[in-house]
Amino acid sequence: MTTFRGPDGRSSRERDRPVLVAVSGPDGAGKSSLVRRLRTLLGQRGFSVVAPHCYGCVLCRRFPVPPRAAEEPDGGGRARRATDPEHRDSRLRRAHAFVDAGELATRVAAARMLARARGGRAVVVTDRGPLDGLVKFDLSAGSGPAAVFRRTARRYDLTLLLETGPEVLRGRGWEEVAGPPTVWWARYRSWSRRLPGITRLDGERAPSLVAETALEHVLGVVRERERERERVTPPEHGAARQRRHVVVSSYDDADNTAYRGGGALVVAKMARRLSEDFRVTVVTAGRRGGSEQRDGVRYVRLPVGRAGPRAGQVLFLAMLPFAARRIRHDLWLESFTPPFSTGFLPLATAAPVVGIDQGRSTEALWRRYHLPFFLVERLGLRFYQHLVAMNPADGSALGRFSPRADVQVIPNGVEQRPLDESALGTGQFVLFLGRINTWSKGLDLLLDAYDRARVPLDLLIAGSGTPAEEQRLAALVSAHAHGARPRIHWVGYAEEERKQQLLRDSAFLAMPSRHETFGLVALEAMSYGKPVLHFDLPALGWMRDGGDVAVSPFDVDAFGARMNELATDAALRRRLGRRAGLAARHYTWDEMTGRYLALAHRLLDSPAAARRPRRRGASWQTTR
What we know:
Layout: H1 12-15, E1 19-24, H2 31-44, E2 48-50, H3 58-62, E3 71-73, E4 79-81, H4 85-88, H5 91-118, E5 122-126, H6 130-137, H7 144-153, E6 158-163, H8 166-171, H9 174-178, H10 181-192, E7 198-202, H11 207-232, E8 245-249, H12 262-274, E9 279-286, E10 290-294, E11 297-303, H13 309-326, E12 331-335, E13 353-357, H14 362-369, H15 373-381, E14 386-389, H16 392-401, E15 406-409, E16 429-433, H17 443-453, E17 458-462, H18 467-479, E18 488-492, H19 496-505, E19 508-511, H20 520-527, E20 532-535, E21 548-551, H21 556-568, H22 570-584, H23 589-604, H24 607-611
Parallel strand pairs: 1-5, 1-6, 2-5, 6-7, 8-9, 8-12, 9-11, 12-13, 13-14, 14-15, 16-17, 16-19, 17-18, 19-20, 20-21
Antiparallel strand pairs: 3-4, 10-11
């Protein structure tokens, strides 16, 4: 068999071995917790992760006495430093180091064999590496055990050195156990300069941020490995290595002035993440047909925008099955679109289809217009084998409507930002931020509550919608205008920078919606440390005890009373805002998009997906 080797001389088999990562640093720096987080994050991205516990050899486990970096008494009662050359390379110390290095190499080899046997993309993460062994024994660079550790270090693709200040280790009792932390950090810095693939991490940051940074470094190694494989792949094998195609359909888009809701942002984040491993196309609505490339993702627009927002939604749903038959794809992710939600796509393609509940509002439309759109929706849901909900309440509803479907709950994410303690409890106005839809977003209820309670802060409404909805809101604002100075301000659509400024300067967010699937704007406000006042809808249960204030659904008097309480009590806002900011840290874009990536790999990497015949037809990218 011919073995293909690249410019670096490594064979394709060597490049296909599992990626080997070590998390290094003193005990108490958070190595084990970082390994657990990395294992979860990598697993969500479809990696097969093996994480053996490599700390300590059989002698260390049998006689758990840590090596001290400070003065140690010898047999004669005299004090001798551990760094003393005579003690440093003693026979007993070198023998112990040989055992430790041998056991580490054996564990790593076994973990790599296990990861390779599992197949797919594999990563081995150890909570200790050769760097820790060299620091622990601090042998001379030319000694035999040091050479074994350094040879093992060359097998690692990446070593993450988790750096913390000496004060952190002292606070965890390190000095009482193993000596001054400054001595240990001097060893780590000295040995890290002699080993390849060392990356330093700021271990004093929030654990979630450290994990995200570490994940990016690991994924960087994976991407570099894949680029190397592509460079050495023989030409006749190139077609077989073409990436699989994932299509995401969503009526909402950032350029759609009638919507521009949170769904467009979620789809953009999801598509960019999926593009790491797949070819991705987003099918959305537009005034004209055509396609464009953006952030590594191809956007295809169906020409339905000229029909208006309501008729355009119906036309978009009608065109989706034809688009599914025309665009070659391996997986289709369908973001549901009102008024019928489902586009019956599983009937139009043999590839797996995942229905994503971002805009299912048939029950709300029934309450408002008394039109039974939900009958069509519930019929369509029975054809889906895979469904995703934004919150547990909607997940339970989807499970009832489609009992045979695999239903997952994947909440939205938010950009992580540091919590400014000095800004907690401050604010100049009450803020409503979102799409202008008077009935669905409860703007009529908000204005009534604000008027009755005589809230001392001004009310700012930021957002845009259809011309009819904007006219309706303008009439409502005019009807509630009292006195010489207006206290209700509608500022129109807020671009990203303006939106961030409004969130920073607001006292709290008011979200009086009659219907929501998640409430992404609430999560954004929480990330700025702002309380959220809302009606207690089942879909908003994820906010419970996260700095929110929930009021009985559609009780205008109670909503106004709590609005007045929040506006007059800065201490309450400060307490709730801190809780909201901490709760927002559990919702990251990285985790959310990673779960979609893991779902795509699970559906496409299974044997059933490999056997499924692809739909024939011309690619949409090559036809206009």
